[in-house]
Amino acid sequence: MKIVGLEAAHFRIPLPTPLSDSIHGEMPDFELITARVRNDDGVEGVGYTYTVGRGGGAIWWLIEHELAPLLVGSDPQRTEELWDRMWWHLHWVGRGGVVSFAMSAVDIALWDLKARAADEPLWRLLGGQAARVKAYAGGIDLQFPLERLREQTQEFLACGFRAIKMKVGRERLSEDIERVAAMRDCIGPEMPLMVDANMRWSVDEAIRASRALAEFNIYWLEEPTTPDDIEGHARIARLGVLPIATGENMHTVYEFQRMMSYGGVSFPEPDVSNMGGITAWMKVAHWAQAHHLPVTSHGVHDIHVHLLAAVPNASYMEVHGFGLERFIKESLRFEEGQAIVPERLGHGVDFLWERLEPYRVQSRKTIEVAP
After folding, report:
1. Active-site entry in 165, 298, 301, 306
2. Would the pTM of this model clear 0.90, i.e. be above it?
3. CATH architecture of the domain covering 3-119+352-368
4. Catalytic residue check, 283
5. Which residues of the chain are in CATH 3.30.390.10 domains?
6. pLDDT digits (tens, 9 = 90+) for 111-141
7. Number of C-alpha atoms within 13 angstroms, CB side, residue 344?
8. Is 365 known to be catalytic?
9. Which one of the listed residues 10, 114, 165, 167 is annotated catalytic?
10. How many CB atoms are located within 10 Å of the residue 85 CB?
């Protein structure tokens, strides 16, 4: 078997509702970058990554001009070898950043192809631990007025979610306390409630916030400070009160290894779309298991449901897809706060390309060889 074609595309898609957090501000749209890999039997695998509105063109260029020529003609079954080849090919300018985003899209496509060629759903090919995954609704709602925050919460509950995450990191800690108190009133005293600061605070501010929010029975405090400050995370974990989740802004396996080794995280949170793809995500999950830590996820729930279903140390899966369900044939199903892992071949995310077409920024079939 060999790869005979690789095609990348770049789309800019308006959000149904503009979203906001403490670092990125208001986000009116997002970028979707796709990779389609085809083997000589005509089987195609699809991968994708996304941005919050910036940098998508660079990711597309890397897939087009660096990764496609590197991989066409190779055996797509050798996912470890191909991942290693991509890593070292762009190591000098990479070791994270947009290179990891580009690698992620391609690696996801390779695993999708591998599972489809094997007539298996991805989660079974990866190990098949469980057919359901606990899920929480991830609100991106820092600037929502309190009344809109309450409305969103009721919408999440009506959809069957039994765990919710909200944004913190307002100008004053007292505002965060007021909003978390309101949320706790909405969902009751026991339902898991996560809070996400999106790297807003200094280490000392995060410690104060952790102690102040503890009375509200918080399941975890996410991204309290910059992920580059590993020692700072360890201080927050040691001197604060709340468990720490972090990882959506870590783009290599090695960053996760160091954070876990320093004791700076309770819930490692790799994002398969930006830290090297499925090959890298599974390494982080296994490393977390070796440290007796549960692993969670960030975004891209249609892919993450397979990965969390494949490992024994799965925690809650975040559910927010920027409205991506508008552009795929079958959306993920949920029952009583759990995601039902699809039995479709591969990861089962089949894009409705004709619906995406009006949002295309750029694409070009990069390289192709005869079967």
Report:
1. 298
2. yes
3. 2-Layer Sandwich (3.30)
4. no
5. 3-119+352-368
6. 999 999 999 999 999 999 899 999 999 988 8
7. 16
8. no
9. 167
10. 15
